[in-house]
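[09:14] KT: can someone run the structure on this one? pasting the chain below
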Amino acid sequence: MARLSKKDRELQRRIAIRCFNQAWELLEKKRKKEEDRADLLHLAHSSRYLWGAVGGPWNRAVADWLLSRAYAELDQPQLSLEFAESCLAECREHGLSDVEHTAYEAIGRAYATAKDYGMARKFLGLAQDKLDALKLGKEGRMVYQGQIDDTRRLLKDL
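[09:31] RB: done, structure tokens below
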């Protein structure tokens, strides 16, 4: 991507945020139409592309997590795992310990989507351990704990 002016970088940053938020709204939608499923992927990929141009490691890691979550939602476990592992690699490369738990949750979700419940449990345990070690406010902890709990509900063999 060509060097962007400050104004263009700010515009792309705002669009990346909007794409992320709209994708998240579609993830939370209970009954998705085929159009919603396509829009979810377009928005998540757009967000990741833009964060790759104007964001930092934290933004890229979270955008990879969103893509992993989107692919899991659409029952594409291999692509979900690929983006979850990319999220984890970004976390490790840049010391993003505050995001690492989400990477492990995403890997767990990808394995749960693939019906590999043993591996899902392993990575959800790692996610829980990383979350427990973080110093977070009550609201932040509830959000992340909710994501881990949602993924645990996918385990059919409990």
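[09:33] KT: thanks! The chain has one domain: 8-152.
[09:34] RB: yep, looked fine to me
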